[in-house]
Amino acid sequence: MGASTSSLGGYASPPYYPAPNGGWVSDWTDAYAKAYDVVSNMTLVEKVNLTTGTGIYMGPCVGQTGSAPRFGIPNLCLQDSPLGIRDTDFNTAFPAGITVGATFDKALMYARGEALGEEARGKGVNVQLGPVVGPLGRKPRGGRIWEGFGADPTLQAIGAYQTIQGMQSTGVIACLKHFIGYEQEMYRMTSVLQTGYSSNIDDRTLHEMYLWPFAEGVRAGVGSVMMAYNQVNNSDCSQNSLLISGILKDELGFQGFVVTDWLGQIGGVSSALAGLDMSMPGDGAVPLLGDSYWMYDLTTAILNGSVPVERLNDMVTRIVATWYQFGQDEDYPLPNFSSNTLDATGALYPGSLFSPSGVVNEFINVQGNHNITARAVARDGITMLKNDDNTLPLTTDDSLFIFGTDAGANPDGINSCTDMGCNSGVLTMGWGSGTSRLPYLITPQEAIGNVTSNAEFYITDTFPSDITATDSDIAIVFLSADSGENYITVDGNPGDRLEAGLYSWYSGDELVQAAAAVYSTVVVVIHTVGPIILEQWIDLPSVKAVLIAHLPGQEAGNSLVDVLFGDYSPSGHMPYTIPISESDYPSSVSLIDQWPAPIQDNFTEGIYLDYRYFVANNIAVRYPFGHGLSYTTFHYSDPVLTTVTPLSQYPPTRPIKGPTPMYATTVPPASQAAWPTNFDSVFQYLYPYLDDPDSATTTTPAYPYPTGYSTTPQTPPRSGGAEGGNPALWDVAFTLSLTVTNNGTRPGRAVAQVYVELPSGLGLDTPPLQLRQFEKTDILEAGESVVLSMNLTRKDFSVWDVVVQDWLAPVDGAGVKLFAGESSADLRLVCEVGADCSTV
Length: 840
Ligand code: NOJ
Hints:
Its EC number is 3.2.1.21. Keywords: Carbohydrate metabolism, Cellulose degradation, Glycoprotein, Glycosidase, Hydrolase, Polysaccharide degradation. It is a single chain. This protein is globular. By secondary structure, the chain is of the alpha/beta class. Strands 1-2-3-4-6-9 form a six-stranded mixed sheet. A six-stranded mixed sheet has the order 12-17-16-15-13-14, with helices on both faces. Helix 2 (44-51) crosses helix 10 (309-325) and helix 12 packs across helix 14. The chain folds into three domains: 26-340 and 670-697, Glycoside hydrolase, family 3, N-terminal domain (TIM Barrel, Alpha-Beta Barrel); 371-576, Glycoside hydrolase family 3 C-terminal domain (Rossmann fold); 634-653 and 725-839, Immunoglobulin-like (Sandwich). The protein contains 16 helices and 30 strands. The structure holds 1-deoxynojirimycin. The site of 1-deoxynojirimycin has 7 residues, from loops.
């Protein structure tokens, strides 16, 4: 970017060329064979057409590729979001990722993924743009941390794995995003107006934290990965050859296709060489002009030799193979909705000045019975932080007084703000592209009103001055904290919580204090995108109970009532820490608000994120990661640690790569790039054709190839070998079994969390505790017990050896300790490898 290395903090991203071809993993062999048969018969323009979007607003979806009708391949529809089908109707608005993380429930994670996939398929979406594991949640104020599953790589990894498997079981291609280091909204992208920030991440931190969930998503067989907007180590993600080709495709063995984030592409040849496979929505630096970095320009780049034919063949093979891998060649619906309008008819290509019109919405209802799953996720994510004097559950005889606009409806209508770009009424999700419209909304007010007639509602954030209370009256105060994506600013917050900080919005903290001054019993319900500071009122004597209901989606009220009135015990656990003060975080995770470029965001806290940092530094927190109370209590006993596969220092040698498709590498004849005769083109729509194909072949490529550019294949990395990495990393090293007994008086679900402590003998600093596995019980009746058996893999005990470039483990697990408990600060059992297990 023209800056010297010293002004870039010494962070640079080494080159990695050429991009490795896909197809060498056995699970994908059949799909690649089918793709080969098709691609080997494609013309140059047919290939190019599948790699590039047709332009923003040039079709029904947020992005669509060109098509290859001779082979039955339609324009592939790419559509948000990770929590529901965006910008349409008759869809379900599920709880957001952070709520899913809080459930710690693998079955629910899968069920929600499957339901999302069914809805996407029902609408004709080929590629659903989720789940999100980047941001990882490094910055508590980061605008999009709620789209992912929590501030822990294992929780993110398991959330992604289950969601992807569920989604893709329906034939939809999931898109794991955003790769990688995308932790802040402000200055996130490079455009004609600004240069995006660089997330400067050292190799070990990258592997042990940010890459961890992506590796698990690739292992789940994810079909596509979206590159982040930002730079990593001063190279834009969309053309960072080390990230795309070295790490994602070679080391993690990713077999699907890599797509840009929307308008995140900044170069044509550069991104192609770096390993990018698909450009979305296809436009160049300035959208809507009919310009593209690829499409017709990629055609030219192939004809003049700037981009090797082999690279194009790999791009399109990856895309077509993925389409086959999920069976989209058979009975897959075409889009039957428009993300541009809810009208039945309208412009087919609203991005064009002269668009033809037609039917754009068929109003297909895809909700099925997904409200049940949506409610279950929202309910089982509700996290009870505090419950003094067993204040909860309430009874319908209790005399209730409800305060806060977060209990009610948005007076302007549930979908009145585009992409949820406002915080009015109960907060069901953050804002931006990671949203969907609400088909309906059950507010807390409505749901509470449905079960009791003893509730009075004050849907206001100002405590009424004339209120008096008796000792038996109970106040329930609703608070919210919102954030979202950067293209919308809400109340001064440009995505990130710049203005609001980590405090409740709309004077919520004062509302609680005012209620606590009048009522002797106050229950606080919080809808929040992430960490929130509670110190202004948490210790007030009348604040008896606190529930974090996260971001519940359309079933906000019903799920809350399920818990408030005791039909279900709360069973959610915190997917991040609630600190005492924002200043308790390392200063390196603050928002970077410096200008101009180059903005350097140095990840100097390394692998010490959230509880890893607080525990290592003995910093007291208000509520630890993993914390969550129930109406009952659980006893942990009978731990047994069994060695399954003895650990060697490094994993066994990786499997060798299987073959990849071999095509002719000759440049196709320029005549293939000519416009078809009598072609009726749409103005500004992006096409792969050239007006003068012959002149393309005669232009000498003046392209300055990047340093380190090479077409000689790299030696396959020793830590790779299959999807996710060397398959031996997932060998089960130990099984930990234990008994959980409900020793309280009510039914409830426990979440057993396993944290690993690695020995200092590894020679590397590691956090004292790292979550590596968890399991949630079914509902246990009072007195009931269950034995949980949890597998821990080689990777769970490994650190990234930056010199050897492989995963290093303590031989035979010597010195490893495994803790099991109910949170990172409530550890009940400990097993030390080679010694006995005991209670803590
Ligand atoms: C930008 C967002 O970062 C990404 O998550 C989304 O999928 C695309 N826009 C498409 O809307």
